[in-house]
Amino acid sequence: GNSVTQMEGPVTLSEEAFLTINCTYTATGYPSLFWYVQYPGEGLQLLLKATKADDKGSNKGFEATYRKETTSFHLEKGSVQVSDSAVYFCALRAGAGKSTFGDGTTLTVKP
Amino acid sequence: EPEVTQTPSHQVTQMGQEVILRCVPISNHLYFYWYRQILGQKVEFLVSFYNNEISEKSEIFDDQFSVERPDGSNFTLKIRSTKLEDSAMYFCASSEPSGRTYEQFFGPGTRLTVL
After folding, report:
1. DSSP class of residue A82?
2. Of B111, B65, B64, which Cα lies nearest the Cα of B88?
3. CA-to-CA distance for A21 and A8, rounded, in angstroms?
């Protein structure tokens, strides 16, 4: 079956540091890949997505590139802010079926 | 912008009681889903629903759970006899086929607390 593996957290960074959260996946076929963000006490917000190999999703300074050869979709941001503190989930979805989520990575950014 | 809504935002119930969680998907969407997230854990798939029937369900979705689309707008999740371990955040989602994207739109969640 499909699966998503995220780097273990939590991650603590200083403001303006570079962020990478690793995500690799196992899937049959050609899934779409997503990053969701969950702020404390809130629901899931779609951060960015990519639907085919070599696509780059980007939003709010975050980026991730769909790498079929390495089955990866790592999340990056050049300069994090305190307001980026949240839990980040990598997910995949094949067609109209269910989404499969990673375990989530908690990011804390300190001023 | 259209959005998925869920009610109530927080439900507290006694063990053994029945609860119904309600969702209003985006109006032109065709696929509906329920997920749950136990506090501090990953988001887990429960069930998907299309064309008025369950299209897929996980092992979590046992006989205590049921889903229904009673009218053209609501999508409900019923837990017949709640257990302590049912305490979680429950997310509804909907989607429509759109090329290959099949993006899911998630509601804000209902926090269920079973005492």
Report:
1. G
2. B111
3. 9
Q: Give Cβ neighbours of residue B81 (< 8 Å, ≥ 6 apart).
A: B16, B17, B18, B64
Please, what is the end-to-end C-alpha distance for chain A in angstroms? 41
Which residues are registered as beta bridge partners of A89?
A36
Q: First-to-last CA distance in chain B? A: 37
Query: Which tokens belong to B28?
Result: 């032109």
The pair of three-digit structure tokens given for residue A84, joined into one six-digit string:
């980026």
Task: Choose from B39, B102, B105, B113 for mutation: most chain A CBs within 10 A.
Answer: B102
Q: Which of B5, B1, B17, B4 is nearest to B113 (CA)?
A: B17
Looking at CA atoms only, how far is residue B102 from chain A in angstroms? 6
Helix/strand/coil for A34: strand
What is chain A's Cα-based Rg? 13
pLDDT digits (tens, 9 = 90+) for A13-67: 999 999 999 999 999 888 999 999 999 888 889 999 999 899 999 999 999 999 9
B87: its two tokens: 């305490």
Specify the 3-state DSSP secondary structure of B31.
Answer: strand
